[in-house]
Amino acid sequence: MPAGVGGPGTGTLPRTTGPGGADPVASPSTAPGTRWSRAPWRTLLAAAGGLAMFLAFPGHDLIALAVLGPAALAVAVHGGGVRAGLWLGLVTGLTFFVPLLSWTGIYVGAVPWLALAVSQSLYLAVLGGLTALTSRLPAWPLWAAALWVAVEAARGRFPFGGFPWGRLGFSQTDGPFLAFAAYGGVPLAGFAVALTGTLLAAALLAGVAARRAGTGAPGLRGAAAALAGVLALPLVGTLAWLPLPGESLTAGGPTTTVAVIQGDVPRAGLDFNAQRRAVLDNHVQQTLRLADEVAAGRQPRPDVVLWPENSSDIDPYRNADAAARIQRAADAVGAPVLVGAVVGGPGEFISNTAIVWSPEEGPGDTYVKRHPVPFAEYVPYRDFFRLFSEKVDLVRRDFAAGDEVGVLDVAGIRLGDLICFEVVYDGLVRDVVDGGAGMLVVQTNNATFGYTDESEQQLAMSRVRAVEFGRSVAVAATSGISAVVAPDGTVVRSSELFEPAVFVEEIAQRDDRTVAQRLGVLPEALLTALGLGAVLLAVLRRRRAARA
Length: 548
Hints:
Layout: E1 15-17, E2 24-26, H1 40-56, H2 68-77, H3 82-100, H4 110-134, H5 140-155, H6 181-213, H7 221-240, E3 255-262, H8 276-295, E4 304-306, H9 320-333, E5 337-344, E6 350-358, E7 362-368, H10 382-386, E8 407-410, E9 413-419, H11 426-434, E10 439-444, H12 454-469, E11 473-477, E12 483-485, E13 491-494, E14 501-508, H13 515-519, H14 522-547
Parallel strand pairs: 3-4, 4-5, 9-10, 10-11
Antiparallel strand pairs: 1-2, 3-14, 5-6, 6-7, 8-9, 11-12, 12-13
Helix pairs in contact: 1-2, 1-3, 2-3, 2-6, 3-4, 4-5, 4-14, 5-6, 5-14, 6-7, 6-12, 6-14, 8-9
């Protein structure tokens, strides 16, 4: 961090010095708990920052606005108290998560939606408090950006395995910040966005303070240094693209012909499970049509056919008719079909299972979803949460969690299978690539979210994962959006919502390793430690200042 950016003597904030040259302490005009930290414009600024982040995500796709979230929060809390920071962070979180997660309440009402949005906003409240605490440290924009990574790391793990939806890195489906994912995963991409925003805040604060103090050009050096950082980070991201693979699906390894089937559902909504035979028939019919196209020479014969999650909610192990329908489709197309099925067991549970269904031989290898979604696929502490909403009983039987990594050998192809929301979890995606997957497959069912932004938001995650691991990604959805994504995040093919679709593409099976894959969790761990170390330092400085 260049000297003068938020450090002592820069003129960014009025300061006093304790006896014997002790660490700087806020002057009365910036002391915690004063009117300065509770000014209405700070709340409005925090709210504007949350709204800017929301507009950066799919549905609006104004990705450049993502930096304004960290920038606005940093300005709003700077020099204020922890309690004020908690409030301002909460405001940022609510204006971000309430609209971002509105799809969660499309059919179950406002209570689950708002409960989830508020729970995620509490993490940003903590972020606001910690950012305020560290805002008097030298090089504070760096610590503030690292704290974004730390809080997102916690949000992605706790409670119930976490819910890392809406991480800053997932907003960057294009532009210079996306390249950072190939070097440090989603955490590094998010850090680059956050640091650009906090440096922008530092430039603004330094410029305003210099003007108020009347220091002229010398006082503006801090603002210029911070602004140089704002411009440098996108430039670094642009240069980082140069050694990355091109957008071709067929470069980088032997190719496989992959077919993606989107059978569609009769209607959107929570009664999707009541339509399960119709949904299975839709996917069978689309596969039979593909078989006719192959026989006529209008399509190449696929090596593997991908069906989505919930394409057979009738257990084909227990229902001979469902098994016969799937077998007919596999035999007709002459290729294994990866079926997304709901399977009975173990015990009283059910399992969200991917089944490799081969011509003539029938069902073979399976993958059971490792991370069932709490309150959607299982209900923790059911009796307790029923006190708040009887909607928990819409989940009649809990799904069991699988314990094996989703790498499936299909006709000599190693597919890295992720079921629905599993694509949002860094560790689950890394596991399948480390397990030797040559491409990624995301089987998903978005029918229960209707015509909302959920499908686009989930597709954005697949695009970031493609860059992060240098793998093509095939997304098979029951009702959309199905897609084929190249290793540079480009969407090569995509479907519309609630329309049948069939894609057949040649996709290279890659075995190269990106820097992000080699480093694994290390970038996130180091950045988290950096942020928490700054918090510890800030606490120690405050204690010493109080004693002085």
